[in-house]
Amino acid sequence: MGKITTLQLLDPLKVFLEYDTLHEVFVAQCLQTGHLVTADDTETAKEMIIELLEEEVSRAFQQNDLSRLVAHPASMESRAKFELAALAKEPVVSTITVHGEIPQGLRLLIGQAEVATEIRIATGRVASAA
């Protein structure tokens, strides 16, 4: 039996990225956690959401409280937009590593002190930003 190498409860994290015409910013939101960031361009939004999720998932692991990550998920509308965008174009895939001291009980369960999880970013309405 192999080791668990991903954070399977949240793997993959799904992020929907689109341009908000009302506020004139790019918005990236994680579907499972509800975390979101805004930026002036798509690359910055992607970098910011990846950094935020890496920090938040690591903190949840360190505090042995994964439930707080999924307490406020994104809306069903955002989930549907992600799925439609993912059908139209393959999502961009990144990997984050969960850092920090993982609680002993969880470390024994997964057999290692560090884990990684995948982030899939599907992009929606961004052409309208031009």
Could you characterize the architecture of this molecule?
This protein is an alpha+beta fold and 130 residues long. It has one domain (8-129). Helix content is 32%, strand content 26%. It has helices at 42-62, 76-88, 104-110; strands spanning 13-20, 25-30, 36-39, 92-98, 115-123. Strands 3-2-1-5-4 form a five-stranded mixed beta sheet, sandwiched between helices. Strand 2 (25-30) and strand 3 form a beta hairpin. The protein starts with 12 loop residues before the first strand and ends in a 7-residue tail after the last strand.
Task: Identify the notable features of this structure and list them briefly.
single chain; about 30% helix; disordered N terminus; alpha+beta; about 130 residues
What is the element string, with H for helices and E for strands? Answer: EEEHHEHE
Lateral strand order in the biggest sheet: 3-2-1-5-4
Work out the helicity level: 25-40%
Rg of Cα set = 15 Å
* 3D shape: globular
Biggest pleated-sheet summary: 5 strands, mixed
The chain-level mean pLDDT equals 81
Give the number of domains.
1
Question: Termini, distance in Å?
Answer: 51 Å
Q: What proportion strand?
A: 25-35%
Low-confidence stretches: 1-6
Class based on secondary structure composition and strand pairing:
alpha+beta
Compute the number of strand runs: 5
Tally of separate helices = 3
